[in-house]
Every structure is written in structure tokens, then in C-alpha cells.
Amino acid sequence: RDARRRDGAVRRRGRRAVTAMTTLAMMTLAVTRARADGATTTTTTTTDRASRESAMGDAGGPRDGIPHPAEAAEREREREREDEDAARTTGAKTSRVDDERKKYVDDLLEEESVDDRRRARSASASRASRARARRAAAEWIEAYVEGTATRDASGWDDGEAWFALGHARRYGLIEGREMDEGGAMECLRRAAELGDAAAHDELGFTYASGWDGTPRDGAKSVLHYYFAANAGSVRAMMALGYRHKHGIDVPESCETAVLYYHEAAKIVVEEAAKRTPGVLPFQIEKHRLSAEMSGSNLAARRERDLVQYYRYSADMGNVDAQVTMGRLYSLGARGLRKDVGAARKYLTDAANAGDATAMANLGNMYANGFGVDVDNATALHWFRKAAKKGNAMGRYGLGYMTLAGHGVAQDHALAVQYLNQAAEQGLSDARYFLGVLHLRGIGVKQDFTKAYHHFNIASHVGHEVATYNLAMMQLNGMGFPSSCASASALLKQLAERGHWATPMEHAYAAYMRRDYRGALLRYMKMAEMGIEIAQANAAFLLEQRLGDEGRFREDTQVNPEAPSTATRALHYHRLAATQGNVKSLLRIGDAYYYGKGADVSLTKSIAAYRQASEQRNPHAMFNLAHMHEHGIGMQKDLHLAKRYYDMILNNAPDATIIVHLALKKLVLHQWIIDNKDTILRVAKEIHASPTAQFVDFVVVVGAAALLCFVLLLRVGLARG
């Protein structure tokens, strides 16, 4: 529509130019005729009146329909003013459409987080309002990109709008509509054609996972991920980094994996560097699903009750509760919205009551202007009071203020002393600054080994910038020999803390509201990015037949050659086991033992159990003990079986009763083997007697009881 307006304006300007040229030619022709008739001599540069007389006829009107030049110029100015007014009107309409488009795209892509579900106020009314807004957004964007009988498809070339519509259709975000995979793929392909990075990322996942019967195609998956990563998609960068790290559909290359992970980790570090000191980092809740969990809001209700209890206790003067509520309000955590005023009130009450933690938090608020004006004197006052009580945060605050010279004389040696005290008490920020000081040689002698040591300790408790510095030191061989594998692991761990991993929370929220297909879809997408918990959760849902609805079974109509659900579950267990998930190793062993998702292979089953037992897993040890005792897949060895049972006692005290019973059974088994000949002789004699049938019955019942006993042992140990 805008293009048609521009073309019309150009055509109008062209017509006006032609008209002006024609007018000038006609005026020249009239003057020439007047000279030929002997009229009064004149030139083309005469006065306005002379020109008017030469151009006017006897009737006083324009001769041959020729307008006066002044009139033509005035008309031209009027037309230009009309064009400017039309352009302003068009610009205003375009701006309004852009604003509407942005609002509706945001409404359509917004998903409910775990924190939203925690808030009691966001229950029914808020969710209903959000659902209405999303339906309206879907209708507007559908008309915008696809057009209607009364409206042109003005957004046909808008890749972001196409992606938003495809995303909403795939993930079932439009209230009252089923998930529409066919419609979603059409929208995503159109958006990808227009160069939308998120659409390429979604298509990369589709071909990587074979979602909804789409034939798996590793080459197409990598191609779409590559386009998305080049366009700035962090999720695609993580997917490619994971593939290069493990050689999935691409050549294995640690260096290439580091390049992709580094881009994502750098964004996390930049955001962490802007964060106010003392404020907890952006955190994503990653829940590991299990059979004991159920899709209900019981945990959320308990948490709300706990927060209400703390609020009541704080209002009644409980100092610990005041500190807790102050921290929760300052962070906006546990279902509470951030409220700096309420946080300052609770912390001030607790600090006046003598609580050192509250004093240090108040000092942090005044030092960084967190909800108040920056006041170094007040900050130092609270930091000193907290430090006198031995508070680590208070000592760190004094060290930081002394190091930077804020409100106090700069003194590097004294700052290092305060930071060392805070670091010894376990404060990660203090460890990080000590690492920086040793790395740069500020206040201390430059020492890469000590810097590495401090960064390593801070990294273990989750300090992002320390983790990044540690990875860079490992990559460049500063303080220790270079290690690409260690650096890539740290960068991957850091990259998984970014906001792009929020679908983990959306997946859990979908699971809790029993939207198992939505949960499976999100976990599978995060699994392709290499997040281990997502891989394990996807495997769990597939094992439980939750959310697959036949789309991964052999009878899938879209793709009859698609692997079974059990095979898919085994695939994700393998991915999780590669990243150290012991329970996935056990499930792999069980799959090969029972033939679920793979052909029976006792050799592969034993290998998986042994790998898990090396990580001190009691269930794997029990399975190996059972297989050694009965010679299943290996030579019978009761002594080795006893060794595994003893290892369980050392590593799992809770299984003491079950293991002792198993050992008693093992002793009985050994006695039967040692007295085999005697037992056979007595059995033969008894068989010749009239009571032989009764003895056979007793033996069968005893064997059945023994089998049940073994099964109970396995189940009890698994639950333990």
C-alpha cells in the first residue's frame, strides 16, 4: 500500500512537470504569432501586465486555454502542500500500524512463566485477560500477514510477524485453538524465506528432532541453525556449539564449539557486569521430572503460604523474617514483585534491631543507588557496623569502597585485607575481585596461579564473570596448561544461564498444568541446545508416553519410518548420559537388558551398568551383583557379587536392610552350590516316595517366592 502511494506521488509530479513544459511552449508560440501580426513589440521578459495582455484574448480569458505562469506556480505550491499533508497522514498511519504490530507480536509470543504461576494475583482474572489479548493478537496478525476479504496482506513480507504466528500455532499459545503443526510449518518456512533468525532456529530444531513426524535431516538442521546463528540467534549458536563439541551431524571440533559458546557466554557476562553488586544474578529454575512428581500447583501453593508466613512474622517483629522479606522484595523472587520501598523498610527495621546481614544489605543499597540516592557516607556507616559484627558482605563492601576510593581514601593494601576476610567466609564477589587484583597486579604481586585459584573458587559457587575469566585463562594457558575441553565446558555452563533458556521454565509450567505435549516440545527444543536436564526430562516424558500422542511411534501417518517412542527416549538418555547423567546410564542399561527401544544386548547393558557403578551408583551395583550371582551375560561369580553388595553398603547406608537380605540370599545360594550333590541325592530319594508330588509343589512355591523376593529387592533399592 505504501509502495502504491509512493508510485502515485511520483506519477503526479511527472504530470505536473509535463504540464509546466507544455504551458511554456504554448506561451512562446503565442508571442511569435503576435509579432507576425504586427502587434506591439514585446519580449518574453516583459512585465506581468504585458505578459497578461499578450496572453489574453478579447474576452479577457486565457487564450487557447493557457494559464498564467503565476497561477500555475500557485497551483504547483498547493499540490506540494497536499502531498506533504498526505505524506504526514501516511506516516502517522504507518507509525500507528507499526506500534500495533509490535504490541500484537509481543502479546502473541508472551508465555506464562513459573513465577507468574506463583503469584496468587495472577490466577484466574489475569490469565483470562492474557488469553483474550493473545486471541486478539492472533486475529490481527493473521489479517496482517495473510489478508482478508476486506484487507490487503500488508505484512506479507514481515518475517517477524510470520514467525510469531507460526510459533503461537506450534506451541498452542492461542486460547481455544489446538496446536496446528501444519499451519505452523507454513508460517515458519515463510518467515525463514524472509530471513527471520528465530524461524531458522525453529526449523533447525524440527529437522534435528523429527518433531511431529517430520523426517529427521541432520544436514537441513545444521543449515538452518547456521543461518540463524549468523543472524544473531543465541539458541542456534548453542545448538551448533553442542553439535561441534560432540560431533553430532558435523565434524567434532572443540575449537569451533568454543567460538559458538563464547558468543553466548559473552552476553551473559556483559549483563552480569551491569548488575548491581550484591543482587542475585538472573536465574532460571530447572526442574528434573520424576515419577513422584505430579502436574499440580501444590508446591506453588505451599510456597505462597510460606511467603505469607514470613511476611506475618516480619510484621510481628521477627528479625530473621524481616531480613528474608527484605531480600525477597529487593529481588522480586518467590512470586513477589520487586518493591524497593518495602525491601528498605524491612531491612531498616532488622538493621536497627542489630542484624548484621540487614546492615550489609542497606549499605549495598546506598552504595549503588538501589532504590535510593547514592550516599557513600551512609553506605560506609552500615558496612562498618556489619563488618564489626563479622559479616562477610560488610567486609566486602568496605573492601570495595576502599579499593575504588568511594567516600574514603583509596588504599589497595587495606582493600585486599578486607577482601581476603570476606573471601575466607565464602563470598564469591570477594574471591572474584581478589582474582582480578592478582591477575593485574593491583595491590599485590601479579600471580596468574593465584588469580586462577580465586576465579576457580568463585566459579564453583556460580559467579559468572569469574567463570568467564577462568575459561579464558584455561583457553590461553594462563596459570595452567591450555585446555580447550575445560574451557568449552565452562563456556557452555555459562551460556546456559542466559534468558534464552527461559523455555525451561515454560516447559515446567506446561507440565504442571498437564499440557504434556507443550512440555515435551519445549524440553526437546532445549535438549537440542545441549541442556542436560532438558534431555533427561524429554526422555522421561517419552518413557511415560506423555505428550507424544503417537507422533514418534512406528504407525505415525506422516512418517511411517519414524523411530518408536522408546527409541526416542533412549536417544535422549544417551545424550544426557554423555553429559554425566547417571540415571540415564541406568535407563540405557535397562533398555538393552529388556529390549526397550533397542535390541537385547547384555554386553551393552553390562557396559552401561559398569559405567554407572564407577560413579558410585547403588542401583547399578545391585544390578551387576545380581548378574554376577546368576551368571546373566557374564560368568557366574558369587565372590564378585558379594563385593558389589558390600560396595552398596559403603555408598548407600539407606539400603542396609535390603542389602543384608540380599547377602543372606547369597549365602543360601552359595550353600546350595556347595551341597549340590547331596541335595540332588536327597531329592532323588524323596522323588521315589509317595510324597514326591508334594515336594515338587513346595519347590515350585519356594522358587516363586525367591523370585518375588529378588524383584522386591530391586524395586526397594530403586526407590531408595
Briefly characterize the structure.
Helices cover 70% and strands 0% of the residues. The chain is mainly α. The two termini are 68 Å apart.
Mean pLDDT: 79
Report the sheet with the most strands, covering strand number, pairing sense and barrel closure. none
The total count of strands amounts to: 0
> Which structural category do the helix and sheet elements fall into?
mainly alpha
Strand fraction: under 5%
Give the % helix: over 70%
Gross morphology is globular
- Could you give the distance between the termini? 68 Å
What does the radius of gyration come to?
A: 38 Å
Low-confidence stretches: 1-64, 118-122
Please report the number of helical segments: 33
List the main descriptive attributes of the protein structure presented here.
33 helices, 720 residues, 0% strand, single chain
Structural write-up:
The protein has helices spanning about 1-35, 50-55, 70-110, 115-120, 125-145, 160-170, 180-195, 195-210, 220-230, 235-245, 255-275, 300-315, 320-330, 340-350, 355-370, 375-390, 390-405, 410-425, 430-440, 450-460, 465-475, 485-495, 505-510, 515-530, 530-545, 565-580, 580-595, 600-615, 620-630, 640-650, 655-675, 675-685, 690-720. It is mainly α. The protein starts with a helix and ends with a helix. The protein is about 70% helix and about 0% strand. It contains 33 helices and no strands. Helix 9 (about 220-230) crosses helix 10 (about 235-245), helix 15 packs parallel to helix 17 and helix 17 packs antiparallel against helix 18. The relative contact order is 0.05.
